[in-house]
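target protein:
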Amino acid sequence: MKRIFIVCQIDNPQSNYMHFSKVASNLISFLGETISEYCDYEVHFINLSAPKRGLKSKKAKTYIFDKYTITEFSSGPRFLPGRFRFCITKMKSRHFLKKQKRESDRIMFYHSKGYMNLYRFAINLFGSNNSVLLVAEIYSDIDGKFRARHKEISHIMKFSRYILMSSGIEKIIRKDEAKYIYLYGSYRTIQSSSIPNRKDNNIHIVYSGTTDKIKKGLYLAMNSMTFLPKNFFLHIYCSGKDEKLVQQIKATKNTFYEGFLPESELSNAILHYDIGLSTQDTSLPFNLTSFPSKITFYLGRGLNVVSGKSYSVLNSPLINQIISYEGNEPTSIAKAIVEASKVANKSQNIEFVNILKKDLIKDLTSLLS
């Protein structure tokens, strides 16, 4: 059977050793499962990160799951700073890939500024047509540093096969000879029959995700509550490390802090809600190259979605499946929420994501052929 190695950060419940991004992990695990199940590949994740703080180094090990494996590497003494331990894991991953490489193998990277110095090595080892880059966003667009952005894009352009999460990224790369497919999040869905029936007349809204003050998503969500009817309630799932923020959430009209939940538990919790919010400051440059993957997460659980009209959202196939608003005014967001509350689309939302998955399977088959 053909094999593909995917270099990324991924949650490994058998180890719980490495740092990882929960959003990226959910996306990449879905992609790995899809490639394994529908594209006839053995999927092998290379888990690259520094170990969690205070954990001592351990031997390299491969963990076996139903649809893929995860390989992790030793990282040196725990007194070393995390960035040095990360460098050690990257070095060991190079040796591992050299040793494992077979003629028909492919490699994929989940784009990260921390992995960019591995790109040329991998392309030389596996070949340009066997190397794929998944680009979720241009990370330098968030901090706005021109030199860093130029360097990041130059590394991205070393590839000729891509999985992109925004058409804005393709616009920047501008490579006529390259092959692109699109992925807008994890396309996991539920059965519409599993959605519970509520008998109250209240409208329950959910915001889950970042508390970043640059993207402002959480704050835009809270500010909109002032302009909503009294039977609209907002439930917030996010990190509770900032106690002042938690108190601010609790002090907001009709708003509840629900804590932080992993995706599997959050997926069940939001079945009781009506509307998912994908709010963020749409005026900032990162909106050109960053698509909010929580949109497909909400739709796949039957929720209606309210999102700002960012470039990446407007130029995606999801724009006609959601309720969008202009600008960042809380009155505009509140108006969109009220509009979303009048539409019953649960089954249609789930089916829409199922169609996206079917299209993805066709695209992946072509990209990896």
